[in-house]
Amino acid sequence: MRNGRYKIQSLLALLLLAAPAFASAGGGFTVKNGITIATVALAVFALLGVVLQMVRGQNGGASKKPAYVPQNARFISLKKGHDLSIVGEIEGEEVEEAAVNTFAVQPPDIVGMSPIPKVLVEVGDTVKAGDPLFFDKRFYRADEPRLMYVAPVSGEVIAINRGAKRSIVEVVILKDKEMQYREMPEINLEKASREELYTYLHDTGGWSLIRQRPYNTPAHIMDVPRDIFISTFSTAPLAPDQNLLVKGREELFQKGLDVLAKMTDGKVYLGLDGRGKKEPSKAFTEAQGVEKTWFSGPHPCGNVGIQIHHTKRLKVHQQVWTLGVQEVISLGALFAERRYKADRIVALTGELLKKPRYVHTWQGANLGELLKDNLLEGKKARIISGDVLSGRGKKAENFLGFYDEQVTVIEEGDYFELFGWLLPSKPRPSVSHAYLRNALKKGPYYVDTNTHGEQRAFVMTGQYEAMLPMKMLVQPLFKSIVVNDYDEMEGLGVFELVEEDVALCEFACTSKQPLQKILRRGLDMMHEQS
Amino acid sequence: MKEQKLLKFLKRIEPDKQKHPFWHTVYDGMFTFFYTPNAVTPMQGVQIRDRIDLKRTMIFVVLALQLAYLLGTYNIGQQHFQALGQYTGLWEGWHLKLAYGLIKLVPLFVVSYAVGLGIEFFTASRKGHPIAEGYLVTGALIPLIMPPDLPLWILALSIVFAVWIGKEAFGGTGMNVFNIALLARAFVFFAYPQTISGDEVWISGIEKVGMAYQGMDYGWIHGVFDSLFRSLGWAEFGQGGAPVADAFTGATPLALAAKGGWEAVTSVPQYSLSNMWWGFIPGSIGETSKPLILAGALFLLITGIANWRIMVSMFLGAAFMGFVFNLWGATPFMEVPWQYQFFMGGFFFAMAFMATDPVTAAGTNTGKWVYGFMIGVLGMFIRVVNVAYPEGWMLAILFMNAAAPLIDHLVKRSNINWRKQ
């Protein structure tokens, strides 16, 4: 990590340290002085080298190609970013069945959804898994297909909860004991035209699994994407092991890839884990009909946005699609089994859990039921649907996000800390080197939601750039969003980013700027203009 | 729980925000100094935040300056007594030198913070903003770049100008175009040039009577120290008014080099390389001691608070220009070997603490290389070629502050064009 910086720093230090030596020697450059300086310099340099090795080992930044990566494969090694190590990791690979009864589909999870979608069910209705619940009115014209959002489980609709200005925030379903699936119409993947495929997906809810870049909205109903990207590993803090998610569902994953290949004129790209810690599942390495790229580096190299940037960059007026591994599996099931199977393996993580573990459940599971009997007592908990960087804080009565496959529970940080800025009483993660402990010890750290300081104007520079492995001027980009400079925003590549990509920058920001919020404002502005 | 008691006490004395906005702002500034607030991250956006904040960042720069403060204080006394021909050895009469330095420096320091923070508090309360930490560093920097004998009212005036016009008018910390500390110095430089340029200002407590120089009379505060020293049986200040030593000229190494090149500098016995390197020469208070400044710079580099790109490129720029002048060799000053240029003047202080100000420097990494290099080149150019100004870093940095947005603009254009391909 940032080895170049250390090297140049140490060189500079040497240069400067050498000067007094020859100053005290009376300014003359004799051979004897030269040898003395050179010896001291070498000794110091060797010492620094050892320290560097230690630091590098700590950060796990070995960028060598691991043995399991095939010889001729495309391997991209990224340096920028930071692996946050926090307490609450799952041990083992056991997946338990979660006892969750209520599930919800939440329109606010879907970026760009109109606040009041057209709801097709009423409280008291019974639905099967795959029955349509609502559709986005904005997309709907008489001659256009409706983009349906469907029930993840079968059961009774027990509530349609509304938020501010009567917007619909949750459609809640009480799950049956025995799951019943809506039988989807027959479709032959080999023979179907692209239009037939699209109609099928709009109707069966398969389309809702696909997100497009730019903007991270659901793919537009008639668009043909340039390419489709899938990241098969996650580098976010405590993120689930994707190998585990695909285990036993390898065929469905491949089927999903086959479907996707039919929907684009370009290619389906798979981003594979080349960090060398764990070999990716065969479902990924031996996937057919896709282009594979291996990535190595600290977080956020597992983010699909970073992978798009390095595989085939997104340009203005282009669209690509992105999916998660479990979404591809659901898509595959739509064709292989003709069912909307939105079952998810969810990682329950975080320091406030008695036992972090994997559970098997369905899309939009109730968080309180997921975490039942697993929360540590006596501490104020922040339940996060997603990871600590880009997830959303929720309450126990809320539900897992539409695309989320992780729950993190950490402590609320609403305490005052005496001289917290000067002499921190608790070790907390930091990418800064202004804390000796953080420079030397990688973690894992306990975390809380305290902001550790107040919001300020942009003061430091170069921080964001060091946390985002893209050829992008991040801080100038954010300044252009703040001042609504549309042209510059577009020129500097706002369309390549979504919230999760800048989440680490937001974490690292000394001025505590709300970068994800600012970015969303910029993206919304762009979206309206286009 | 002592901690909780303090917290309760502080919460009890909180002034009402509506009735006393100014005192509430001051209170808030003090409270956040004692306690990191209990604010938590919002439900949307990042859920945990990095430990670092602007307070720690800024205080680290102040910490990095402490060595320069230490030697600066001692050197004020050292230069004063050396000029008078008393206690010429480095550690002779150290208590007098330290006391003399403190008597000069503490008022400068106090005025700097009192005036600057006063304005900061006032504008923050007017705007309803919390107090930003920017002046913590600026206030510590300003005394170090001034001559020791600067009248306090001029210092106060320069700070009013720099903070009010240079910073608050632009929107406060993070918004200013020019480096505030250098702006204060530039104000003194152009408005009261006799107090900050020439041969007579860099050594404290020397006045011109008729045609001859002599030491000024010591004041009451020296008398207080004298009574202390007397009780300890140490040497005392006495009355003052002693004539200067025969060899005294007051000229700084830079002034000598401008006239007669490196030979003129080394002909003065006290301007040995070692003295120049360690900082026992006349000059602005904090700029003279190279190793102690570099120790501070190294501290900032290791903690990642100052930008290494600017430091390296500025060093390269100055070395490059010095080397070009060596080849050119039109004046004696140009012939000063390039490495010796670094022994004179305030290059390292400017490099470590002035050019690296993140707000006024170029914001892009590529831009920083250009920015630093150009400061090095321009500063050396002003120092050597322009006879009117003895030192170039202040003007070079202020000029490049103005040019930094342009550099960033060009870097942005190149990124935009690359993205269009």
> Could you name the ranges of chain B where pLDDT drops below 50 across 5 or more consecutive residues?
none
List the total number of helices of chain B. 17
Shape of chain A: globular
Biggest sheet layout of chain B? 2 strands, antiparallel
Largest interface: A-B, 86 and 77 residues
- Radius of gyration over C-alpha positions of chain B, nearest whole angstrom: 23 Å
| Mean model confidence by pLDDT of chain A | 86
What is the count of helical runs of chain A?
Answer: 15
* Beta content of chain B: under 5%
List the helices and strands of chain B in order.
HHEHHHHHHEEHHHHHHHHH
Largest sheet strand order of chain A: 1-13-12-11-14-10
Extended strand count of chain B: 3
- Work out the helicity level of chain A: 25-40%
Oligomer: heterodimer
- Gyration radius of chain A, rounded: 25 Å
Poorly predicted tracts of residues of chain A: 56-62
Strand-pairing-aware structural class of chain A? alpha/beta
Side by side, the strands of the main sheet of chain B go: 2-3
Report what the structure shows:
The complex is a heterodimer of chains A (530) and B (421). With 530 residues, chain A is an alpha/beta fold. Among the domains of chain A are: 3-59; 451-530, no CATH class. In chain A, 30% of the residues lie in helices and 17% in strands. Chain A has 15 helices and 20 strands. In chain A, the strands form 4 sheets. In chain A, strands 1-13-12-11-14-10 form a 6-stranded mixed β-sheet. In chain A, helix 6 links the parallel strand 12 and strand 13. In chain A, helix 5 (250-263) packs across helix 8. The radius of gyration of chain A is 25 Å and the shape is globular. Residues 56-62 of chain A have low confidence and may be disordered. With 421 residues, chain B is mainly alpha-helical. Among the domains of chain B are: 2-34, no CATH class; 261-410, no CATH class. In chain B, strands 2-3 form a two-stranded antiparallel sheet. In chain B, helix 5 runs antiparallel to helix 6. Chain B starts with a helix and ends with a helix. At the A-B interface, helix 1, strand 18, strand 20, helix 14 and helix 15 of A face helix 1, strand 1, helix 3, helix 11 and helix 12 of B.
